[in-house]
Amino acid sequence: MGRPPCCDKIGVKKGPWTPEEDIILVSYIQEHGPGNWRVVPTNTGLLRCSKSCRLRWTNYLRPGIKRGNFTEQEEKMIIHLQALLGNRWAAIASYLPQRTDNDIKNYWNTHLKKRLEKQQGNDEQNQGSSVSQSIPKGQWERRLQTDIHMAKQALCEALSLDKWNTNLPDSKPFPITLSETKPIQTSAYAASTENIARLLQNWTKKSQNSSQAGSSQSSTQTSFNNPSIGTSSSPSEGTISATTPEGFDSFMGFNSSNSDVSQSEGEPKYNAANVIAEAGILHGESKINLDIQMPLTLLENWLFDDASAQGQEGYLMDMSLGESADLI
DNA sequence: AACTGCACCAACCGCGCGACA
DNA sequence: GTGTCGCGCGGTTGGTGCAGT
């Protein structure tokens, strides 16, 4: 019968997204929330296919995304997880909630893979092939293990949201239940639109530089601190590359220099709360009905006991990944 | 200065899966 | 049980910038 194309190829725009398109998309999602991508192009007037819109949102515009500058800790995690899971980038990304699968995949293909191959070549030259010993488990077992973990994490996200909400000193950034999704997404999307504002800021700066070198930076900032789009823009964040917009970092303290520094000091910050908050809330696309109120105390205990048993510090790194530790 | 090769990364493409009628 | 639809995932491609010649 043949699968119909995901969208009408006629009149569909391809290639890089413009800042204007980004704003349109973010504005729409801010209003309606992510999901139902099928109708996004028609409702927004964007000449993009629904998949392109979804991809743009999940890989680039979604709040909470950390871009570029993989820390040493993150590198190790990716190497570990890739050894364990193989090229299941979405599963790997679930352990690094600030990173998208696409980002991790790219980083692996461009950096880590080559580095490891080089290193493996050296090892084989030095001491013969010991690589085969690094796969003690059957692949099916790995998958099973991963799927169990992912299922647990998904449950954990769903179950912990209310706890997370009540534990927060200021619950404003995380209004939790689905019946209150608007406020959640509004705050999250506000950060996203702020990102757009920063992108636009740099975009115009770049175009200004090309046409009129040396124009003042503050003027561009003020012109794009539109309250309807972004809320603030720190002057220290003025140097954003248009091709690799660092300004798209996450917005709640997971991001950039602070977390990088702490992680590079060997103390992994992927505690359960962070993972839950990022994966469950910021992604904003969980299919779990968070309004479900059911007697899951037993399950909750199991989940949180498990998380705490692994310890908050480095609880992700301790996942029986010793076989790949030698790769680093 | 011009050309070439390479690295990087955003975006696209095709397929599989689950939900639903 | 079957077909359709929407979404997510992984592999791949194409554009861009940079370094080397």
Task: Write up what this structure looks like.
This protein is an all-alpha fold and 328 residues long. It is built from 12 helices and no strands. The longest helix has 31 residues, at 181-211.
Q: Describe the main β-sheet briefly.
A: none
CA-based gyration radius:
22 Å
Number of helices: 12
Given helix and strand content, the structural type is mainly alpha
- The chain-level mean pLDDT equals 56
Number of strands: 0
Euclidean distance between termini CA atoms: 49 Å
Strand content: under 5%
Fold blueprint:
Elements: H1 19-32, H2 40-44, H3 50-61, H4 72-85, H5 89-95, H6 101-127, H7 139-167, H8 181-211, H9 217-224, H10 256-264, H11 272-282, H12 297-309
Helix pairs in contact: 1-8, 4-5, 5-6, 7-11, 8-9
The structure holds a DNA duplex (21 and 21 nucleotides).
GO biological process, one term: response to auxin
Region (Disordered): 118-138, 205-266
GO cellular component, one term: nucleus
Jot down its keywords.
328 residues, elongated, 0% strand, mainly alpha, DNA-binding, disordered N terminus, disordered C terminus
Characterize this entry briefly.
This protein has helices at about 20-30, 40-45, 50-60, 70-85, 90-95, 100-125, 140-165, 180-210, 215-225, 255-265, 270-280, 295-310. The protein is mainly alpha-helical. Helix 5 packs across helix 6 (about 100-125) and helix 7 crosses helix 11 (about 270-280).
